[in-house]
Design goal:
By secondary structure, this protein is α/β, with parallel strands linked by helices. It has a single domain (about 5-155), classed as P-loop containing nucleotide triphosphate hydrolases (Rossmann fold). The protein has helices at about 15-30, 35-45, 50-65, 80-90, 95-105, 135-145, 160-170, and strands at about 5-10, 30-35, 75, 110-115, 150-155. α1 crosses α7 (about 160-170). The longest helix is centred in the middle third of the chain and has 18 residues, at about 50-65.
């Protein structure tokens, strides 16, 4: 049995990352690191720029480092990989600072869960890519493969996703 295990949910907007990370946190009594981007973007009160992605990534990773403890599962609702991909897509920039931050995250995360956007779109003030979700999913998948990090893909109805996650986590921890 593993003493500690860190899971990071990733994927395009509105693909179930927050819902599933909260489920895993509740189901396994895990520490949950919520998506910092929403908190930050609400506070700045202006459109974000590339530098904001670095600030968000640093804060998210610091939260992760501060919250990891022995004999616990830690769940990250949206990590630095989302900011790295978004920087490439939105700003056409392979940002070096984000890359370095992401390498720190990779050294901590044991499993990435790539969420397929096969659920209905729900609009909110921070979502920008309603019609690009499939394309973004493929970008995330290619990115995780390139980074050579352990990941699983999760899809289907919420009940099936929960069952699949529960089975996988019980097997791994």
């Amino acid at each position: 049995m593993i003493d500690s295990f860190t899971i990071c949910f990733t994927g395009p907007e509105c693909s179930g990352k927050s819902t599933l990370s909260e489920f895993v946190s509740d189901e396994f009594g895990a520490t949950l690191i919520k998506e910092y981007a929403r908190t930050y973007l609400t506070a700045i009160g202006r459109p974000y720029v590339k530098e904001d992605l670095r600030i968000i990534a640093k804060a998210q990773i610091n939260q992760l480092i501060d919250s990891i403890s022995d004999k616990k599962i830690t769940v990250i609702d949206t990590g630095a990989e989302v900011l790295k991909v978004w920087c490439q897509v939105k700003f056409n920039d392979d940002d070096r600072v984000l890359h370095e931050l992401l390498q720190r995250q990779h050294s901590i995360v044991d499993l990435y869960v790539l969420c397929k956007p096969d659920m209905p779109w729900e609009a909110d003030d921070f979502r920008e890519s309603q019609f690009d979700r499939e394309m973004l999913y493929e970008i995330y998948k290619a990115f995780l493969e390139k980074e050579k990090v352990p990941f699983i893909e999760i899809s289907g109805e919420l009940i099936q996703r929960r069952l699949d996650l529960t089975e996988t986590i019980k097997f791994l921890v």
